Amino acid sequence: MTKNLRVKTSKLIDETYKISFKFNGKTYYGYKGDTLASALLANDVHLVGRSFKYHRPRGIMTAGSEEPNAIVQLHNNTSRTEPNVRATEIEIYEGLIASSQNCWPSVNFDIGGINNFLSPLLPAGFYYKTFMWPSSFWKKYEYFIRKSAGLGKSPTKPDPDIYEHKYMHCDVLVIGAGISGIMAAKAAAKNGFKTLLLEEKSYLGGSTIYQNSEHFKINNQISSSWLEKEINEIKKIKNLEIKIRTSVAAFHGYNFLLARENLTDHLPLDQRKNKTRQKLLKIRAKKVITATGSLERPLIFDNNDRPGILLSSAINKYANLFGVACGEKIILFTNNDSAYETAINLNQKGVKVAAIIDNREEVDSKLIKDTEKNNMKVYKGYTIVDTSGYRRINSISIMQLSKDGQKVIGTKKTIVCDCLGISGGWTPAVHLFTQSGGKLKFRDEDQVFIPNIYPSDQISIGACNGDFTLNEILSTINNKLKEFLNIKETDYKNLDVQSSYNKSKRNIWLLPSDKAIGKTKSFVDYQNDATAKDIKLALREGFRSIEHVKRYTTTGMGTDQGKLGNMHALGIISETSDSKMGELGTTTFRPPYTPLTFGTIVGRNVGEYFDIFRKTPIHDWHIKNKAEFENVGQWKRAWFYPKDGENMYDAVQRESKAARDSAGILDASTLGKIDIQGTDASEFLNRVYTNAWSKLAVGKCRYGLMLNEDGMVYDDGVTTRLDENHYIMTTTTGGAATVLGKLEDYLQTEWPELDVYLTSVTDHYATVSVCGPNSKKIVSQVIPDLDFSDENFPHMSFKNAKIGKIKCRVMRISFTGEHSYEINIQANYGKSVWEKCMEAGKEFNITPYGTETMHLLRAEKGFIIVGQDTDATMTPIDLQMDWIVSKKKYDFIGKRSLYRSDTIKEDRKQLVGLLTENPDEVLEEGAQIVADIKKSPVEMLGHVTSSYYSPNLKKSIALGVVRGGKNMLGQKLIIPMENKQINVTVADPVFLDKENKRLNA
Amino acid sequence: MFIINCPYCGEREQSEFKAGGEAHIVRPKQPTELSDDQWAEYLFMRKNIKGVQFERWVHVHGCRKWFNVVRDTSNDMIKAVYKMGEKPPSI
Ligand SMILES: [Zn+2]
After folding, report:
1. Which of A294, A360, A966, B45 could staple A426 via S-S, CB 3.0–4.6 A?
2. Cis amide bond preceding A160, omega within 30
3. Could you confirm whether domain A162-294+428-468 is CATH 3.50.50.60?
4. Domain of residue B41, residue span
């Protein structure tokens, strides 16, 4: 049954290279150079999909990236499967397997097709109106909608391909290698500009490259021959880089653009191994020349969506470039001269053009005369009122247009055909221009939006600027390029152009019909099945803004972003609401211009490279000793060290007990460390911490709390005075970078008079923390020269010391409440010191512990963790830490906020301890706390912030924030859970060793 | 993504910088003498203009210096860049 509709060998097609591919399970043949669409058309396959809402049969409509219908799924059920691929763009390769999307069970018999007959029940906004009510039914509706609609399937297996990102810089970027782009690139490059030329297709030259007719000549050569010579010339220019199969996805401000370069999608699968599939180019251009051409408009009439109906320019391109006839009896329907170009070309190739229907009554151009000379019948002043043929168009009905174009008159005539080409004129492809922030203006004479105000150093030339004819392009390009590039001359000064094209056009946005509008299906957005009727309904229902009409009718919201029909939607709104097109404005064109794969967007940032992470100098030891890790900020921190199949709970219980019974060791290298120097260092600390620092003696350590200017706790940590004008501050692991940033901000912008220097030294030191009753015995073995007596080295003090020849700083500070030491040493010695401590601690069963045990141990002591027990709403007073807020200091960051009317309220949430009635019951962190469960609505007093089973106290302990909790000591509260309630008593948050005896044990 | 002309380093990509809100809001020298309303004015009230706005930026992945930028928030055009402590240009 397959026909071969190849008409003539074409330059792009290599007929010696046959390629087999599968479409919907059937094998077909095409040639190298074919797109999937051209190969299917050559096999007389038009029906390629079903429409989104009504499941109407749909065919290939265009020959480019604007295609709304022919979107296919490649290689279904494999790791390389890809949905929403436009058949008009994908080049065929040996082994290509494609299938229709959005049809079930098959494209020829689609159960959803019944929606077509139900369509009176599916008006605009149908989903909003129907499926929203009652809301409890939504889940059922959703199932139904998703099964019968949906565009393609996403892959379920990992993507096997490689993607890359690349930064590019150029003087001049030219987007689009049609005749305008080629000329611009040549002018720029020949004048010394570093030039980049991008073309989305696989060939250069745009539509002129297949313009072989005598009707269009440049310097007395057929336009395609002239352009071919130009192309050969620019390929030799050294400072011009040309990339094909590269489409610009986004044009941002400041001439920053993103483009996708396709490197392997046209190759047979077995030739793609180890090659980069796609590159995302991040381009910064000094100047941008947009030459993206224009898109042909369809015409809007009843049943304008049947398979076999294509844009007239697409039929022309398939014939001229791919050597494929889209039918054997073609009719063209137009309101301008473009369709006659197609007619003449088809005639040259021996394809029968049955008739040309022209909206215009009085038309006269050389093109038309030539057409009539070749015995093609032209119906002037006519319009199509209907088409027939379910899976393929088989006839059209035409009627005469009234003088004003609003009605049809006379009798209906039917003409048989197997293909219909439509041309509604041209729309400049201004998408990228508007993405960049450019402002459009409306040109009334031919009803197009064209670039008006440029937001950056850029220019639009050629058809995307509204210069559609060869005459217009070539007569203006010389001066435009000279001015934009500020150059003396181009090669295009006195070009002699011959063109038979006449610009006249009869623009009717919605063509009249002999039927009432309610009885017609005139599609405006093919992909989303939005009709002229839907738009009119939206207007009747009160929608006015173009953005609202768009969302209500879903016009322009498909993967093609309505590249074909947006202008008609605007036109119909304008005519119906009696407002001017220029004042309506357009909808926003958003990037990407054509869809991008996720692979391209993420590039190499996959798997372990998805996000950066930081390792401590002791990381390898943790790995070797089977630690489980936790992400803290960007750090990988040892979480716990399971032994012999322990789970987390058991490991943490063991580690916690060992630390208090004998000795524990923690890698604290991730704590932020900021080196502070300068004659005003003490004053600076006074201003950034809540407590006083001037009197801290050299060699002493102090805990500090840092607030935001709003009085809320921001960070905490121990700071040590190393020397008169030298401190080392520690911050929380997650807060290191932001604390440094905040300190720098104040220093540079509020207190530039202070003599203070800040240096982040987090990565320069490794920190090994040894705690527990035997910690002194262990650390003194590692550092034998240091006097560890309490008199010489008391709690909250620091010593410079040496391990062998290596200098280190030892702080006697504690986050666990145990007697403990922190050794800070140059990072590359960290692991060795850790191992020395392990060796020395062997006889004391020294136990490495992770962050989870650290959290448990500090909770036993009631020490807060900023970010866990606090959020950005807790003041030091709320934390019952009044003792750390200096009453004497005149000012510090956040001080004034501590007595705002809100922060002094008695019933703020305050930090308390919580003990469960049943000591074995451990609360869930985040659980809500209430007092009266019967009150309706139940009043939430607060929530649990930290909760553990303490092996040292042999009971469950928790911290929480409770409204007015400070004054509730001993009071019973309730934690309501899903299937039970837990009784708790408010307690002192310090559960263990309130007298701090263990610090000196 | 725009380009910012750091007064210390020159032109760099926006991704090297961090915005720091409205410029020229000076921290009161004697906060304790302010009423709640006056303190709240300093603490919370920001203009967030559509149009020309004076802003603080920091070259966070560069020289780490804070400076001022005059930016039209409607189109991201930067009208001027000047150091902390310098007089704002009249725009
Ligand atoms: Zn800088």
Report:
1. A294
2. no
3. yes
4. 3-83
Band of residue A363 on the pLDDT scale cut at 50, 70, 90:
confident
Cβ count within 10 A of residue A510: 23
Q: Is residue B36 part of a domain?
A: yes
Average of per-residue pLDDT across A597-605:
93
Provide, as residue numbers in chain A, all residues whose Cβ is less than 8 Å from the Cβ of B66.
744-745, 748-749
Segment among A97-106, A213-222, A363-372, A723-732 with least mean pLDDT: A97-106
Determine whether the interchain pair A741/B60 forms a contact, defined as Cβ–Cβ distance below 8 Å: yes
A440-496 confidence digits (pLDDT tens): 999 999 999 999 999 999 999 999 999 999 999 999 999 999 999 999 988 898 899
B→A interface, C-beta within 8 Å: 1-3, 18, 20, 26-27, 30-32, 34, 36, 39-40, 43, 56, 58, 60, 64-66, 75-77, 84-85
| CATH classification for the domain delimited by A905-1000, as one of 2.40.37.10, 2.40.160.10, 2.40.128.630, 2.40.30.110 | 2.40.30.110
- Per CB-CB distance under 8 Å, the chain B contacts of A252 are 1
For residue A11, count CB atoms less than 10 angstroms from its CB and return exposed for 0-12, middle for 13-18, buried for 19 or more: middle
- For residue B90, is it within any domain? no
Total domain count, chain B: 1
Domain A667-857 has CATH 3.40.47.10: no
Q: Is A437 within 8 Å of B75 when comparing Cβ atoms?
A: yes
Calpha distance A767→A590 (Å, rounded): 50
For A899, the closest chain B residue by CA position comes to: B36
What single string gives the DSSP state of each residue in B12-35? EEGGG-EEEEES--PPPS-GGGS-
Architecture of the domain spanning A515-586: Orthogonal Bundle (1.10)
> Does residue A132 carry a pLDDT above 70?
no
Cβ–Cβ gap A745/B58 under 8 Å: yes
For residue A315, report the distance from its CA to the centre of ligand 1, in Å.
Answer: 56
